[in-house]
Amino acid sequence: MNISHFLAMGGYAVYVWPSYGLTATVVGLNIFWARRSLRQAQREARRRLAALKLAASS
Amino acid sequence: MSQSRVAFIAAAASLMGRDLRLALRRAGDSLLPLGFFIVVTTLYPLALDPSLSSLRDIAPAALWVGALLSSLLALDLLFRDDAQDGALEQLALCGQSFAGLLLAKTAVHWLLTGLPLVLVAPLIAITLGAPYAAMAGILAALLLGTVALSLIGAVGAGLTLSLRRNGPLLALLVLPLAVPVLIFGARATALAVQGEPIAAPLYLLAAIAVLFATLSPWALAAAVRIGLE
Amino acid sequence: MAWVWFHRFGSPPHFYRLARRLAPWFGWPAVILCVAGLIGGLVLAPPDYQQGDGFRIIYVHAPAAWLSLMVYVVMATSAAVGLIWRMNVAHAVAASCAPIGASFTALALATGMLYGRPMWGTYWEWDPRLTSELLLLFLYLGYMALRSAIDDVARADRASAVLAIVGVVDVPIIHYSVIWWNSLHQAPTVMKFGRPSMPASMLVPLLLMLAGFTFYFGALLLTRARGEILRRERNAHWISAALEES
What we know:
- The complex is a heterotrimer of chains A (58), B (229) and C (246).
- Chain B has 229 residues and is mainly α.
- Helix content of chain B is 85%, strand content 0%.
- Chain B has helices at residues 3-25, 27-47, 52-74, 76-84, 87-93, 98-127, 135-159, 167-177, 179-194, 199-228.
- Chain B is globular.
- Chain C has 246 residues and is mostly helical.
- Chain C has one domain (23-43, 52-240).
- In chain C, helix 3 packs antiparallel against helix 4 (88-120), helix 3 (58-85) runs parallel beside helix 7 and helix 4 (88-120) packs antiparallel against helix 5 (128-149).
- Mean pLDDT of chain C is 89; it is low at 190-196.
- Chain A binds chain C through residues 1, 6, 9-12, 15-16, 18-20, 22-23, 26-27, 29-31, 33-35, 37-42, 44-46, 48-49, 52, and chain C through 42-43, 47, 52-54, 56-57, 60-61, 64, 96, 99-100, 103-104, 106-107, 110-111, 114-115, 117-118, 216, 220, 223-224, 226-228, 230-231, 234-235, 239-240, 243, 246.
């Protein structure tokens, strides 16, 4: 089994590899979005708490 | 019959009477969806080859797409006015079954907007080339279909109560849920137009209508309560 | 006894910390399972008799389709739990599911079209699977649109919960009505996966990929849900301590 045979996928390469590429993209994007959503929420929470503390101490 | 059931029937009856009287005072509002249905179904012959034999093939689709869209349009009349002037809240607080009263409102709404559509459909079908023998089937299918659409549409209307300009959102919510109604109803109508027996899709359509009727009391009450907050 | 566990799990600070500790236990198994599945599916499995090497698309298409459906059920179930028991954690879980489910439904459609082109000759056919996936995408989009149209988070949670519950009851009906409709019009369905006649060398990698994607979803869900809980537990005392830790 050599590399070019593997990449050719029996002639179906133009369908198989984009499918895997799209999947990898969606998988990666979801990881990125999930972590970004968490970071944003943490940032907003810190900001809110800081504002509260400021309001309480004044 | 128990006291509470008598009381509920009395409340529902007076609510339905009130809704009917209010709607008849502004009959134009209730006739708008019907007008829309007629106009939309008229567009098909204008957009296609107007020979009746080819129109006959698309008649079921034209009737059902028209019915779906005009029932969506009609949903605006269901809860909006009563939500704005606080009448819906009164219903929620009056001590009778909220779900039951909402169903009563939906029933009146169907009488005013769905039933006229069903009655006009045979005429439209004739202009689209359907044979006279198909009329009973068309009536039966649209009767069940419009009832089912009213029920599922009412849930969508409840959920979007407080939102402004929610026409497209309501369509996005209700149309996918209504796909089985469309599939079975259009199939029954197509079979009727071809002169074949329509029992199978008609029974399936009836089953959908029954399912929606079973689900809607809970869903309606929950949706409107949330929408009123 | 189970109720104690249930209510502890539903407590936001407990869930927030637990989700952080649990996420790697879903993430790493996902990586291992998917790598194993990919090796098995791309390298070890022999070409299909009819579809040649083209059938290997199934190793990404089937997990995407599986995720699209499973995530909707998780979304509707947790929405129902949130509605009935008034649990913010459950609503947070439901809100987290939607973007994940929608993106994998779109992926299932795209890979389905890429699978269909060599097999049917066209990118699109109104076959039951693709049509059902399309309608499922509309259900997800409607859910997300309703959420974003309502400003108050708690109200958006409850309204979208009702929608999700109605939707999950309707999904099997939609699916079977589409199959019924499709059988009338005889559209060709070449996607015969899921039948037990698949040989082990092809089936095992598929199961590995399905399991791997499920664990992956678990890790994603735990991460997103933590953020959603923070958004819902506005000024609770536990947040400052929890933020220090993470």
